[in-house]
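Table S7 (text form). Paired inputs.
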Amino acid sequence: MKSSLTVLAIGGNSLIKDKNHIALSSQYEAIQETSKYIAELIAEGMRLIITHGNGPQVGFIYRRGELARHELPLIPLDICGADTQGAIGYMIQMALLNEFGKMGIKKKVVAVVTKTIVDRDDPSFQNPTKPIGSFMSEEEALTHKKESGWEVMEDAGRGFRRVVPSPIPREIVELDVIRSLMTSGYIVIAAGGGGIPVIRNEQGDIKGVEAVIDKDMGSSLLARNLGADTFIISTTVDAVYLNFGKENQRPIRRTTLPEIKQYLKEGHFKPGSMRPKIEAIIEFLEGGGQKAIIASPENLLKAVRGESGTTILR
């Protein structure tokens, strides 16, 4: 019998309300608010595994390193991922436990620093396209390319940036630990930012790599591996739209896997925005999942009841 388990992916950008609220205190306030909506789901009896994005937070750590590089070495991207998993996991843990206390929910919460194995020969390592860090002049970019081996590219006419691989996630290293904690009744926070990107080298050892993983693809992999029947992506928009940003845009409230694949083929979803979310959902549903939901944090419970957001059925 299929487990009635839900994997809930919280967007990294939904933890930062706007550019004036990037301080860690402001991020915690946003997490406190989101935790109220998560606690509502748990009060309804849902079994949850929580994942989260970390794109902006990794960017902040990396930027701090850039500003301090005259004195300290840059922080490798896998360590940036581990740092953010720990910090965001801690904040979600604390906020949820406090919310549980107010609501009389007797649940324990644990955060697992999670590694995700990617293929050493993933094509993205030969063609990195994910921009990170600050903008540079062409001269600075070429200097880093020569001295540090960076791949650089011009980004939307605003200057040059470092680009890194974004390989496809293949294996969750801590999967058995996450499953064991889940079975023991814990609310588990795992696979933050898609997981820390690691490879197995020629000797079979695990080794961190300079890359980033799409958090929705990592969350989809975790959901499939755990046999979840529902996959929820919480993001800054209230639903998935056709013709988004145009005069004739309209929300999709309920659809099916074949229909969403057709909408994707027609080009309705933009790369770097809704497209990776839809691709992650397609993989989840094709891998045995029953239902996927995209909704804003404040509408999570309504979306689960079919009153808000976008529901995609297999």
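Next pair, protein 2 of 2.
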Amino acid sequence: MKIARRGVEEATVEMTPLIDVVFLLLIFFMVSTTFIRETQLKIDLPESSGELLEIEKDTIELTVDRHGEYAVNDRLLVNKEMRTLVRALEKTLAEVGLSDRLIITADANVAYQAVVRAMDAAGRVGLTHISITTQQPADED
């Protein structure tokens, strides 16, 4: 008895289901990814090396005293709230013109939160170049 042999069929991989799965995974990852826009401020911390930097005429100066009171270009603000600080910076920015520079002069004993609030207000207004003033250390003999 002669048994007929079946021909050897070549194995193939269907690409259509594979492409469908890849597209579904792509859509899943695009939908499940959260896009967070982080705002970062560039802060120039000058060293106390004895080199003095000149202040440009269109620079805004923000002063913070030891109690957390703010003054923008030597004008004392009525309270410590964020919106008051933002409004004062916007008004000063409109007076000075197109400036993106801010110098923060803070008392050494001021609460850290007051300086962070000042930086946050500057970021909301669009000031990107922030410097913090320092003083030279006293010579120890």
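The chain has three helices and six strands.
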